[in-house]
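Researcher: I'm preparing a figure for a lab meeting and need a structural model of a single chain. I don't have an experimental structure, so a prediction will have to do for now. The sequence is pasted below. Please return the structure as tokens so I can convert it later.
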Amino acid sequence: MTNPPRSSRLNLRADTAPPSRFDGGWWPRSTDLAAELPGLARDLAVRTGGVTRIRYNPDNWGLLARHMTVDGRVVRLEGFTRLDPYSLRITGTAPGVLCLLVVPPDAIEHTGYAALAAAVTQNGLSRDILAACGAIRTADEPATFTGHWWRASR
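Model: Understood. Here is the structure written out token by token.
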């Protein structure tokens, strides 16, 4: 028996909502970006007209192949080390670029959903939004978690 595909944990700002720094928030289930992106691209297809390019920070995700195919469409993957580590930039055939706040995959449920909601209502920096929701620790907190890049202060 196969499990049905899980939808992305994605919250997009309504077109009629006041502007905010991010167009939405995304909470991947793992740190394997190559495995997570096809579902995200499918979920964003209507909003973007079909995803054609995704920009990410390879310092956090690792280097990926330069392209992937999602439902017959080639999606270009571009790693930029200067890109906010807690964000993705998504381009499609529709005009504009979506900027998504990325919630760490290991965030506990209530902090993850709080961060998804804050992504479309707050204008702060990604690190500040995630820290306020408890999804990452801030630089002044003691280092209690050592193994996962999402929790490491940068």
